[in-house]
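Supplementary Note 2. Why include the ligand at all?

Several targets in our set were suspected to adopt different conformations when bound, so apo predictions alone were not considered sufficient. For every target with a known small-molecule partner we therefore ran a joint prediction. The input for 2-acetamido-2-deoxy-beta-D-glucopyranose is given below.
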Amino acid sequence: MLKAFFLASLTVGASAIPTARSYGERDYSTDFNIKLSVASGLLDAPTDGRIVLMFAPNGTEPLEDTDVTSSPNKIFGKNVYNFGPKHPVTLSGGSNESTATGVFGWPNVSLSDINPGTYSVQAFLTRYETVTRSDGSKVSVRFPCGDGAPNVNGFGSLMTSITDVEISGGAQIVELTFNNVTAVEAFTGKEIGGCHQGNYEDTDTLKHIKIRSKKLSKFWGRHMYVGANVVLPAGYDAMDKKTRYPVIYNQGHWPAGQGAYRYGKDENFTAAWDAGVIPGDNTTADRPAPKFILVTFRHEAPYYDDSYAVNTANLGPYGDALNEELIPVIENMFHTIRAPYARVQDGGSTGGWASIANLIYRPDLFGVCFSSYPDSLDFHRHQDIELYTASNAYKRANGSSVPSIRTHVNGTEVILATAELENRWELTFGTASRSFNQWDVWDAVFGVQGYNNYPLEPWDKVTGEIYPEAVEYWKPFDLSNYVVTNFNSSRNLGAALAGRIFIYVGTWDNYYLNEGVTEFQKRTDAVGGSGWANVTMLPEKAHGGNYQAREIWDYLELVERWVRDHAPDGRTPLSASSTAPCTRGNVWEEVIQYGGRQAAIKRQADPKIDGENAKVGEEVSASVGRWDPGVKLIAQWLLDRKPVCVSFSVEQGAVVKYTPTAKGYVQLLVTGEKRNYVTETRKSKRVFVGR
Ligand SMILES: *[C@@H]1O[C@H](CO)[C@@H](O)[C@H](O)[C@H]1NC(C)=O
Ligand SMILES: *[C@@H]1O[C@H](CO)[C@@H](O)[C@H](O)[C@H]1NC(C)=O
Ligand SMILES: *[C@@H]1O[C@H](CO)[C@@H](O)[C@H](O)[C@H]1NC(C)=O
Ligand SMILES: *[C@@H]1O[C@H](CO)[C@@H](O)[C@H](O)[C@H]1NC(C)=O
Ligand SMILES: *[C@@H]1O[C@H](CO)[C@@H](O)[C@H](O)[C@H]1NC(C)=O
Ligand SMILES: *[C@@H]1O[C@H](CO)[C@@H](O)[C@H](O)[C@H]1NC(C)=O
Ligand SMILES: *[C@@H]1O[C@H](CO)[C@@H](O)[C@H](O)[C@H]1NC(C)=O
Ligand SMILES: *[C@@H]1O[C@H](CO)[C@@H](O)[C@H](O)[C@H]1NC(C)=O
Ligand SMILES: *[C@@H]1O[C@H](CO)[C@@H](O)[C@H](O)[C@H]1NC(C)=O
Ligand SMILES: *[C@@H]1O[C@H](CO)[C@@H](O)[C@H](O)[C@H]1NC(C)=O
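The joint prediction is reproduced in token form.
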């Protein structure tokens, strides 16, 4: 029954993450350990993936609450390779060090940290598919299946029954068996793309589109699809080709079958929209509803429930797939106004970022964005992390923890999670940025590919140590930096985007996203003059709601006025020079050249000895080569292939020196180690030292 879920055959092979034999390598008899096997017939072939084991309080269901701010569970993860009926796996212990190969848990690291008692236990296996992307990078990831990429129970994942387990505190073996598969909903097996991006029934006014993306399929080396949910306005007549409508492209998370603004879920909005009449109250009369075509995308991607709607080196050309492939299909099928002034971008949070990014990179395609509480617009504040200047993402210089989620209770700020707690929680669900959660997807979207083929993470996920060189690669997605550096460049963003960016955030944003907006405003005001971008900060407002906390119709009428004013016959038509037929950034070829496999290879270099005419008794010096940020180095000198000193640790960029005491061939070996990287030893050339 699993076969149907994956179109491409499941390839099991060496990934760039070091593989470990996950069974039979040590004697577990003295520990508390969990042995997991799989019922025969459940898997058609052995698989790579991640096992996540959850211990919930007795009498509760482990899936009831897995949220970082409230879960009472103890969660443990471990990568598995070639897992199948013949190779059960044992989970035991856990450590901060071996996250790629061993057990890693939250809130406590090790299985041995669980207090004795009775727990309700369930295990899940997220299956990975190994693919080689067109730039040559090979990764093992989960391709989502119309399920919004949940933490552990995505469609096609294996699960055990919920089992009551009594932990004694001494040596103990608990045996669990994967005996079930999470079912794929609403999938008959005949649809284009199978479960990819889901399958939904149309209604008269809510249409679902799904296309195979040529660009994404080429990049991923397998069939890839993108979809859209299209809500038609009242009175829309498929036969009437003269009446055309502006379109709001509403960006956000996985919408399943729903239309934008919860069309289909919010009965009052749906009813009023379909009637084309905004109901009045006791002070206002009924009035006609604005008429738009409302589009929201289905673009679940490896790494997250949506792609952030831009071209990225880790996720692929999603920006192009949506803008160049899907939107033309929408414009062919429906009676849209095909001009930038009538293409609006909006959204909140992730969608807030995606909407402003699309306007900044594609002012030729879109006219305006109304971006609400967007993800960090300026990485001087990535949430509340001072990414460019801090040395640790979890701890401030004064030792206090960096918060990541807050709320306000009676006006007093209450911290619900710290950056450290949340990152460690994510790490139980996936290593190498594969948790399908927030911090990880930012690493995937904003970062380049690492030399290990996975996102080049800006800090060590366990310790929080920031790698400035990795952060530097984020710059093209620092929208503030991008606007400022291209303000007067050939991209001419200053003139092109003036009057077209609307941003809203509350000062009590639960994720500190107001901080990034403040930085964006400060820097764009400095080059463009006050109000270059129209920023609204509402005091004491939390994350969520419509633009400027407006009631939905009030907001849609504001957008309607903007479109009317900027139409060719409007008061302030959008000028052709600001929408000239070119993109202004995030060009796929440049993105992959800058951040793909070949760039990662080019960043590397072997150690190099400066040893022309070297002589015994005279110092020889060598560089340690170039490595990815965060790789820890151990070096050793050899003379005639034999060690002449103990190995020593050395910083990246250092120059190391050695004074030979005998003639022969001198060589430097450097070994680099990093979480989720294969440990690698690189050698300098051998240099002859004479007398
Ligand atoms: C665990 O919960 C079950 C009900 O779900 C109950 O029957 C049992 O007594 C509980 N065990 C303990 C040790 O509390
Ligand atoms: C793992 O690291 C965290 C944070 O540095 C620390 O609090 C914890 O004690 C460590 N646990 C183990 C088992 O090393
Ligand atoms: C487990 O974590 C909790 C809270 O994070 C801590 O209070 C407790 O001491 C830890 N237990 C062990 C055995 O490390
Ligand atoms: C498997 O899980 C489904 C829910 O996804 C459930 O309906 C079914 O009863 C389970 N089967 C077994 C054998 O536990
Ligand atoms: C719809 O409107 C009714 C009457 O005003 C209200 O009671 C109900 O809560 C509304 N439903 C939603 C989903 O807002
Ligand atoms: C109008 O309706 C609101 C509730 O929607 C109510 O609070 C107010 O008293 C009403 N005013 C009049 C004049 O009926
Ligand atoms: C540490 O610094 C932060 C700002 O960087 C500040 O908000 C916090 O109050 C300081 N904590 C202590 C204990 O000084
Ligand atoms: C918040 O204020 C209300 C009313 O003053 C009070 O009843 C409530 O206990 C307060 N909550 C907290 C957490 O202080
Ligand atoms: C852009 O060019 C204008 C006019 O040449 C100049 O006044 C302004 O300082 C420049 N701004 C930036 C950010 O370079
Ligand atoms: C900013 O936009 C709002 C609408 O969102 C508008 O009311 C306001 O006048 C604008 N501010 C400026 C300075 O243009």
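The chain is about 20% helix and 25% strand. The radius of gyration is 27 Å. Comparable summaries for the other entries are listed in the accompanying table.
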